[in-house]
From TrEMBL:
Cofactor: [4Fe-4S] cluster
Family recorded in the similarity comment: Belongs to the IlvD/Edd family.
Annotated ranges, domain Dihydroxy-acid/6-phosphogluconate dehydratase C-terminal: 408-598
Cofactor comment: Binds 1 [4Fe-4S] cluster.
Molecular function per GO: 4 iron, 4 sulfur cluster binding; metal ion binding; phosphogluconate dehydratase activity
Record's protein name: Phosphogluconate dehydratase
Reaction(s) catalysed (UniProt annotation): 6-phospho-D-gluconate = 2-dehydro-3-deoxy-6-phospho-D-gluconate + H2O
InterPro entries for the chain: 6-phosphgluc_deHydtase, Dihydro-acid_dehy_C, DiOHA_6PGluconate_deHydtase_CS, ILV_EDD_C, ILV_EDD_N, IlvD/EDD_N
Keyword Transcription regulation: no
Organism of derivation: Caulobacter vibrioides OR37
Length: 602
């Protein structure tokens, strides 16, 4: 199938825009490759230090200059369900490396915090910046320069983007990402949302809420809704970082174990010790990144990736913009409905056809680049396959050619919507994004008076007092990266949903984030410039009429511009101490704008 002209046009524009930065990135990569692996330059004392604690067989093999040494960078901790299964991976990887004549070492760990635990808590103000910490921790882990490839173990929110940024910085090393997979299905997501709404209205107590939450989050693996964690896994598959079909295989199963070991064998195969050398800087290019954006739009993925994809692309010398994403979204049909965009969870999505079906449909429709490098080999068509075990041996076969449940996943010829899941919102209030895949068409356009809040707690208090039982555009400002680290505001969702269910026209406008759990309420988020930088949101007052139009992508305040900016801006709240927030002051001071990835590196 010929490439869709819009996808071709956007790709060409990204290539042209990125010409100089991409050339500089590739030049740095080639210089590192020509300099030879660091292990070849390490002194005997350096090398002895590197293997001092290794088993005897690994020490002997380390003397062989043709034996690949794999570095493992892991986000393991046993508190978070998505990362708990990673505990067993290093041993599996080391065994697999030995089977193919190599070695593997645990190079280092990176932090992994959970937005689900920190929602509405002070720790959430560290969340976005943890991405940068993870990237830097990845660099520290690889700084020993003793590795021929990297294996990156991580799943959730900021962890995968941080690992990707770190891996791309070591452009001369091959990179394989190794996921853990989703937990088994628990309480249906629709029921969980119902209980949350009842709790917000005071109709059930904390005991009932906790019971529902524990029934939802009940075992090892990723949370089963289609939030940032599972969007990350989709992305790693579509960009070729995973082995085909790796994303949504349950943890602690024979198939998952086989995929982990094969990831190690594949990493060893693509080092410069063999004939299939594939450094990550060559593997990931403008086409790979466009494929990732298409996947985000086709599956209705997390709004967080509007930040992370820009930052990840920048790490590879590629300049990606919100306009690129918006244009791709308008050309990409919505092929999946997974909660919060539907009632199914990712296990149902996997059973209905999963990534293999989606990728096959995107290829058939000419919406993704087939001619890309992946860790599995040349060509994205390899990812229309799914893994299986035959007599204990890992093999791949063609994935589903038809949807097994059209309420969950559909062909490109009969999509849920002709457009994708994300919309650029722009106007005299600034630029932001809206996740429209879960918003019903009748809620796409709203003009209503503003109710302005500086803190999400203030909004919740006003809701409980009954002050918001009306048509309203809720404005929550000073939530951007410079103000307080851009925490997710998901705690607002149940109350706003209740207002919507009561029949009011409601929208949210904020310079903060709402995450992959963004639901049925129209929410213009990531608004830039943020209020703390003097953006228009700082001048909005209660009662100002605001228009939010997801159809046209317009975000406007219906106040004369001269009169608006004649007002005194709201004062930036002082930074709050405690919970480690003091340590991140330099990041808040130096972070870039949300529409540029909210990065301290750009």
């Amino acid at each position: 199938m010929a490439l869709n002209p819009v996808i071709a046009e956007v790709t060409a524009r990204i290539v042209a825009r990125s010409k100089d930065s991409r050339a500089a990135y590739l030049a740095n990569m080639e210089h590192a490759i020509e300099s030879q692996p660091g292990r070849a330059k390490l002194s005997c004392a350096n090398w002895a230090h590197a293997f001092a604690a290794s088993p005897g067989v690994d020490k002997v093999r380390a003397l062989d200059p043709n034996a690949p040494n794999l570095g493992i960078v892991s986000a393991y901790n046993d508190m978070l369900s998505a990362h708990q299964p990673l505990e067993a991976y290093p041993a599996l990887i080391k065994d697999a490396a030995r089977e193919v004549g190599g070695t593997a070492q645990f190079a280092g760990g990176v932090p992994a915090m959970c937005d689900g635990v920190t929602q509405g808590r002070p720790g959430m103000e560290l969340s976005l910046f943890s991405r940068e910490v993870i990237a830097m921790a990845t660099a520290v882990a690889l700084s020993h320069d003793a590795f021929d490839a990297g294996l990156y173990l991580g799943v959730c929110d900021k962890i995968v983007p941080g690992l990707v940024i770190g891996a791309l910085t070591f452009s001369h090393l091959p990179a394989v990402f190794v996921p853990a997979g989703p937990m088994t299905s628990g309480l249906p997501n629709s029921e969980k949302a119902r209980i949350r709404a009842l709790y917000a209205e005071g109709k059930v107590g904390r005991a009932e809420l906790l019971e529902a939450e524990q029934a939802s989050y009940h075992g090892p693996g990723t949370c089963t809704f289609y939030g940032t964690a599972n969007t990350n896994q989709m992305l790693m598959e579509l960009m070729g970082f995973h082995l085909p079909g790796s994303a949504f295989v349950h943890p602690n199963t024979p198939l998952r174990e086989a995929l982990v070991k094969e990831a190690a064998r594949r990493a060893a195969a693509v080092t410069n010790k063999g004939n299939a050398f594939l450094p990550v800087g060559r593997m990931i290019d403008e086409k790979s990144i466009v494929n990732g954006v298409v996947g985000l739009m086709a599956t209705g993925g997390s709004t967080n990736l509007a930040l992370h994809l820009v930052a990840m692309a920048h790490a590879a010398g590629v300049i990606l913009t919100l306009e690129d994403m918006d244009q791709i979204s308008r050309a990409t049909p919505l092929l999946a409905r997974v909660y919060p965009n539907g009632s199914a969870d990712v296990n149902h999505f996997q059973a209905a056809g999963g990534m293999a079906f989606v990728i096959r449909e995107l290829l058939k429709a000419g919406l993704v680049h087939e001619d890309v490098q992946t860790i599995a080999g040349q060509g994205l068509s390899l990812y229309a396959q799914e893994p299986f075990l035959e007599d204990g041996a890992l093999k791949w076969r063609d994935g589903a050619t038809e949807s097994l449940d059209t309420a969950i996943v559909r062909p490109a010829s009969d999509p849920f919507s002709p457009e994708g899941g994300l919309r650029l919102m722009a106007g005299n209030l600034g630029r932001g994004v809206m996740k429209i895949s879960a918003v019903k068409p009748e809620h796409h356009v709203i003009t209503a008076p503003a109710a302005v809040f500086q803190e999400q707690e203030d909004f919740i208090a006003a809701f409980k007092r009954g002050e918001l039982n009306r048509d309203v555009v809720v404005v929550v400002r000073f939530q951007g990266p410079s103000a307080n680290g851009m925490p997710e505001l998901h705690n607002l969702s149940p109350s706003i949903s209740v207002l919507l269910d009561r029949g009011y026209k409601v929208a949210l406008v904020t310079d903060g984030r709402m995450s992959g759990a963004s639901g049925k309420t129209p929410a213009a988020i990531h608004v830039t410039p943020e209020a703390a930088k003097g953006g228009p949101l700082a001048y909005v007052q209660d009662g100002d009429m605001i228009s939010v139009n997801a159809e046209t992508g317009e975000l406007k305040i219906l106040v004369d511009e001269a009169a608006l900016f004649a007002r005194a801006p709201a004062s930036v709240p002082a930074s709050k101490p405690g919970f480690g927030r003091e340590l991140f002051g330099w990041m808040r001071n130096g972070v870039g704008a949300a529409d540029a990835g909210a990065s301290v590196f750009a």
